[in-house]
Give the backbone structure.
Amino acid sequence: MLKLSRILDKNCIKLDMSAVRKRDAISELLEVLKDSGKIDNTEPLLNDICEREKSASTGIGYGIAIPHKIVDGLEKTIIAFGRKKEGINFDSIDGKPATLFFLILGKEGSTGSHLRLLSKLARLLHDPDFRESLYSAQSAEDIINAFAGEDDE
């Protein structure tokens, strides 16, 4: 069973993002992954993800953005979570700014599990109470615990 709480790493959670633009938000989350030792080079990923965003925004509405990419050379799927309470224009489908960000980098050859992960995340984030728990979390542990509570259901 897919457990998001096991994929999330407390070192890849940033509750006070400084970005004010979409590209900056993606860059900041890539830096979080780099600083935690999950990836080495952010620039090619940043360019690829931003190029994809031009064709279809991953701002899914409800204040949520889920930029994602399958990446050659990863050992496993990794996620960076970020929050920007003031919100960032992410060209979301509902026109509202994004406040909760999930940058997902999937392992090459894992398209099926990547899609299942995106589906599960979207399903969880559809719940306003769950979104509120992420929005009001005080620590990285609170974020992981919110997912762990859902994983157990």
